[in-house]
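Worked example

This section walks through a single chain of length 288. The input is the sequence exactly as stored; nothing has been trimmed or padded.
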Amino acid sequence: MCRAPRDERTWPIDRCRGIQRATMFISRKAYNAAKTVYYSAFRAFLYVRSAIHCAIEVVSGSRYSRVPPPLLRYKVSESFDIRLFLIVGQRIAESIERELNKAGTSLSRMNSVLDFGCGCGRTIRWLIESFPHTRFCGTDVDTLAIRWCQENLRGSFRTNRATPPLDFANAEFDCVYAISVFTHIDEWHQLQWLAEFRRLLRPGGYLLISLHGTGTMERLSMQEAAALRSQGILFMRSSKLHGIHPEFYHTTIQTKEYVLQTWPAFFEIVSYKELGLGYQDLVLLRRA
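Given that input, the structure is written out below as tokens.
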């Protein structure tokens, strides 16, 4: 077999490029392997920390009443801190009412409200107390979280699947809110749920959704940021919380332009508030 003669002029450059590609390949493999080990250790340690916090709270007693166990709190806030769990939930509840007030309405005037993705009741617990004459329902894919809500909070709670429909009648609700849900599901699931929310809301009903907007772009690599600008929505998978959150639950970032172009197919957009809920954007929509 004859080998083509080596070009002495380009050979050093070609060899250097080959070494760079090999180094990048090895580095990528090493990085992925290290990440896999780290994530496994992180999850194991998380369960240990959760058990320790639970034991401490049982032995010492908590001055806070009706607080879910540590792991359920961590799932919604990535923190075991009870005070933080309560403060953030209260602030979200206040933000929901405030946005509705700006639109000329209030939860106090509504008959039925749905918390979609209620988790262990971080937000809905405050609304139930503030608006005792309004019927509140909560749904979530987390069976343990829903069980805790059923046993500890007033209101109606039930589990839901990853895709519609929900077990509610057409036009059953005056308001639906989904806090930190669209931040974790891909475009296909988002569109499915927007259609379902339209079915559940009465004409003139309101929908509040929080999402990761471009304010979170600083976390992205150059390639990810370019993909977001090109597509308008970016769904990023991670195995960090594998087994703690569902398989379809990862991280989604979307642009304001994408929302304004896509979501009017389902709802009238009343307002779009960038960073309206901490580091998340807050979108208020109305059913025609």
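What to look for: Helices lie at 11-60, 70-77, 82-102, 124-130, 143-152, 187-200, 222-231, 256-262.
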